[in-house]
Amino acid sequence: MMEEMGPLQMILLGALLLVVLFWFGRGIGNVFQESREAESDWAGLLLPIGGVVLFVLVLMMLVSR
Questions:
Q1: Cα-based distances in Å from 42 to 8, 37, 39, 45
Q2: d(CA 56, CA 9)
Q3: pTM above 0.90?
Q4: CA distance 53 to 43
Q5: Contact of 13 with 5, CB cutoff 8 Å
Q6: Which of 9, 27, 43, 47 could form a disulfide with 5 if both were Cys (CB 3.0 to 4.6 A apart)?
């Protein structure tokens, strides 16, 4: 189905990967820096997870009847 890549294709793919890494690298570093400085919001994470768990438990109780 798929042919093996030739040497030129591998070189171009590697060059494209390096360009993408350098292009997005600085932005990714800024995102990590901002996430370190941001205050944590555990309620915003745990509340939806708790709601989903509660909903699944209710569904399991309704099915078992």
A1: 49, 15, 10, 5
A2: 49
A3: no
A4: 15
A5: yes
A6: 9
DSSP secondary structure, 13-60, as one string = HHHHHHHHHHHHHHHHHHHHHHHHHSPP-HHHHHHHHHHHHHHHHHHH
Q: Of 43, 25, 41, which is closest to residue 33 (Cα–Cα)?
A: 25
Instruction: State how far the Cα of 34 lies from the Cα of 10, in Å rounded to an integer.
Output: 35
Q: Would you give the DSSP letter of residue 2?
A: P
Pairwise CA distance, residues 36 & 21, whole Å: 22
Dihedrals phi, psi of 39, to nearest 5 degrees: -80, 150
For the record, the structure tokens of 34 come out as 């901002």
